[in-house]
Design brief:
heterodimer; A: 80 residues; mainly alpha; 0% strand; B: alpha/beta; 5-stranded parallel sheet; 19 helices; 16 strands
Chain lengths: 80, 444
């Protein structure tokens, strides 16, 4: 893997980690709601955000696969 | 409490992190760019900065240049990549550390615990909190700890009796803490709900059960599944709602308002009242059958005047807490603690805590001396004096004398008005005062 590829990989992992960070924090919020420390409607909203975050994460991983598939040129876009 | 600046360009993350940081007891402000963060730093001083490594207008590290060294601000870098650890280690002073995404609540808790006054922290931990909640080493408290320890090993329902301010909710939380249960602790106040709403609060409701029931709601019995349900002011529950509660306690199932499905419930019920057992029986505020279901194990919490040796310990604990919250260095003098100990505290621990708080506000925040008012007064003090006067075991003469003096005090010593209030002639009042040796011939 050359430097350009490695930088692209780093960027893709960073993008995938972002929704994971949100998911973790939203889960912590749900724990607080279950303990009665924050209103339950916040927990419901947090669950929706977890679902959205999981989809974002999945999309980022798909992008990652696409970028490193053999049919991708150096600029990162699929070759025709 | 710390003032925290959270710098991150992910709005969803900052939003949820703020809720958690506020729950941890800190004040938090946010910035999504380096420029915004610099602006905050020019206006406010912060105890702690949580700083994302990659920001839209540059690396978070550039913010270090804007920090005033004398403010001793701690910085925690938030990074998505563990390799950053090495870079930070090289540049790290004692005030910088890092967190790797994804972040958990415990991570935030541990980094934010970093900057505390070590002196006050030491003294706080020196005071034992029994069952994580209760403070006091007196004999009545040792007895209370024994009862909590015993009952927590069973599933029995507990009724807490005690005057207002003795800490019934704290004892309920202590019972929950001591029990090895998986569920949560849920507290509700039976006196706080209208007749119409209490059913929904306790048992929940189905969508459309009544006007305004826009969604399904879990009742507190369901919320406390496998845990502890604390029903405060149980004697304030409307008497016509009590059969519903009895049914839940007897059958261990709950039916939501407007619902038909019986759902099993499994939680310990800890109830509380500030009425005595005799009063409960006489005033008929609680049905007998409910009383026996709830008070399988009644515990009476001693008033503060019956455990005066705990007053200095509690006062120390409260002032340590305030020192920690406000960064002050207040210390009690032994003569002040003696003064606190001499008072009866009719409002109990709650009154003492408020008194300490008030004293701390009155005192010079830069010094360590606590300014106490000359006298400790409470609107409850007189009520207490009179109510103790009516306890069995005293003679009619004693009670009569106390009533006469209380009336005279009320009317500023005016004997004619006092006699009228007492329903006796002025002559009789003078005779009584003579007999008490409180009048000489020239005062008539």
């Amino acid at each position: 893997m050359d430097e350009g590829e490695f930088a692209r990989l780093q960027k893709a992992v960073h993008d995938a980690r972002r929704p994971l960070n949100r998911i973790t924090m939203q889960s912590e919020l749900i724990k607080l709601a279950l303990e009665g420390a924050v209103p339950k409607d916040k927990a419901l909203a947090a669950l929706d955000k977890i679902i959205a975050g999981s989809k974002d994460c999945s999309d980022s991983l798909s992008d990652l696969v696409a970028q490193f598939s053999p049919n991708v040129n150096d600029s990162g876009s699929p070759s025709e | 409490m710390l003032t925290v600046l959270l710098v991150d360009d992910d709005a969803e993350f900052t939003d949820v992190a703020c809720t958690i940081i506020e729950f941890l007891g800190h004040e938090v402000l946010t910035a999504s760019t380096l420029a915004e963060a610099r602006e905050w730093l020019s206006k406010e001083s912060f105890d702690h900065i949580l700083l994302d490594f990659m920001l839209p207008d540059g690396s978070g590290l550039h913010l270090m240049e804007s920090l005033q060294p004398e403010q001793n601000t701690r910085v925690t870098l938030i990074t998505g990549h563990p390799s950053v650890k090495g870079i930070i280690k090289d540049m790290c002073g004692p005030n910088i550390d890092y967190l790797v995404k994804p972040i958990q609540r415990e991570d935030l808790e541990s980094v934010l615990q970093g900057k505390k006054q070590p002196a006050s922290k030491r003294s706080t931990t020196a005071i034992t909190r029994h069952f994580g909640q209760l403070i006091g080493e007196s004999a009545p408290m040792q007895e209370l700890y024994k009862l909590i320890g015993r009952v927590s090993k069973t599933k029995a329902n507990v009724m807490l009796l005690g005057e207002s301010g003795v800490g019934k909710e704290v004892v309920a939380a202590a019972i929950h803490e001591a029990s090895d249960c998986e569920g949560t602790y849920v507290a509700t106040n039976c006196g706080a709900f209208s007749k119409e709403l209490i059913g929904s609060e306790l048992f929940g409701h189905e969508k459309g059960a009544f006007t305004g029931a826009v969604g399904r709601k879990e009742g507190v019995f369901e919320q406390a599944e496998n845990g502890t349900l604390f029903l405060d002011e149980i004697t304030e529950m409307p008497i016509d709602m009590q059969p519903n509660l009895l049914r839940v306690l007897e059958n261990k199932v709950v039916i939501r308002v407007g619902g038909t499905k019986a759902m099993p419930v499994n939680c310990r019920v800890v109830s509380a009242t500030n009425r005595s057992m005799e009063e409960i029986a006489e005033s008929k505020v609680l049905r007998e059958d409910i009383y026996f279901r709830l008070a399988v194990f009644p515990i009476t919490i001693p008033p503060l005047r019956e455990r005066k040796e705990d007053i200095p310990l509690l006062a120390e604990y409260f002032i340590d807490q305030l020192n920690e919250e406000n960064g002050s260095q207040f210390r009690w003098q032994s003569v002040q603690l003696e003064k606190l100990q001499a008072y009866d505290w009719p409002g109990n621990v709650r009154e003492l805590r408020h008194f300490v708080h008030r004293a701390a506000i009155m005192s010079d925040p830069e010094g360590s001396d606590i300014e106490l008012p000359k006298t400790i007064e409470s609107p409850f003090a007189k009520k207490q004096t009179l109510s103790t006067g009516l306890k069995a075991g005293r003679t009619i003469e004693e009670v009569e004398k106390e009533l006469i003096y209380a009336t005279l005090e009320k009317v500023d010593g005016n004997k004619t008005t006092a006699a009228e209030m007492l329903g006796i002639s002025t002559k009789t009042l003078y005779n009584r005062l003579h007999a008490y040796g409180d009048l000489n011939s020239d005062s008539e």
